[in-house]
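Table S2 (text version). Query chain:
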Amino acid sequence: MEIFVNLPLESCNCPYGYGGDDCSQRAEPGEDLEASIEWKHAPANKTIEIKVDGFSGVQCGFGCMNGGFEVKILEDPRMTILNFGSHNKHSHGSRAKRQVIIRGEDQDQYKWPNNTVHYYFDEENFDFSMKETILQAMKMLSSHTCIKFSTEPSDVIIRMESDSDRNYCFSEIGHVRENQQFSFTSSCYSVGLAVHEIIHSLGFMHAHQRADRDEYLHFVMDLDGMSLQDRQQYAIWEHQILLVPYDYGSVMQYADADDNYFPINKNRFMYQTMGSEVVAFYDYLMINKYYECSCGDDALKCQNFGYPNPSNCSQCNCPYGFGGDDCSQRAEPGTTLQATKGWKNTTISLDAGFKDVNHLRMRQIDYIYSYLWITAPENKTTEIRVLQSESGKCFRGCGRGAIEIKTNEDPRLTSPRFCCNESKTVRSSHTPTVVMAYNSEGLNEYTIAYRYVDTYQ
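Corresponding structure-token output:
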């Protein structure tokens, strides 16, 4: 990872709490109670236990932006693991996300008991569409996992709130405390963004904070310009479990080339894919593995890398493009096409219409989909050209709509997506080759050409 900073040659940049030119001293001021940094000592081979009895004069708010304190408990003092009152923030337009975070050896500390998330809506600033978006996100997650959502009272409950003064959404990580916060605004207006925040509430961090992220991403960050809160959005957390492979198309992955800090993918074909609002196959599987959702040994046998759906064990969770109870059929709606030696053209049209709510939101809260299966003779390679994209929705993460041609050996992983009007040619050794298109706003039309060629041509 490269980190670009401007450092004066005569002094060091020290972790918070350390000072002096070489970071060997306590940072100052050390006695001022308004901004106090104190060192506590203990005999060798002893553990310091710190009890927080309470404090006053500080407002409990998002990120402790109005004040707070921090206890360094990691072997690496540069990392923050415990911030009293800390949350996870997601700013709309900054997305291009275990990744399960654990504390010490307790892997279950932040799980919701009985796989049930308790919540209620603070109705004061919620409009119908924002509430509908969150409820649809809950329905999507509960229909693919064993997670349930309940409005029954509980000791730990999520307060769903909306603040019109904010342009970002955020949630606390995992099962934390009574009235834990989940803030949703009109700027996060899509089911995918709501799912992103709910997955945080289930105990997961971003995909770009995984321990293996440097195998897939290159980062350029200006540490001098980053707040502590922003650093927490990109830091690799020390205690984590990787339950599924890294996926550029995870709904938990920020966009390529963020406005302020730069996670740049190492696969140049994936730059439009990062920042997806489509919930990936592995996003669901990650949740199911962590919460130990299963259907038992006598469950339905699934094909094409699907697995029994713990929400409905008579059906499978299938990779995009595959359907039927056991993933053996093409997903609907869709069409099956036969490739030939000569080029053939076809156009995929998806009309999502427009949804005008208070003249602010012009897109549907969720996507409509269409699927193609393109078949070819055995031992032939399918070649597909994206000739034209008539959508006018060239956004990072292709949040309004895109076309995806499944070329990965693992069909569960997200393949490159295209939402800008540029010609692309890809090859696939699979038969059928799955082509997926999705849209949430207006009319999208994608014209592709396809044929088969000799595998080594």
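Notes on Table S2: The longest helix spans residues 128-142. The radius of gyration is 24 Å.
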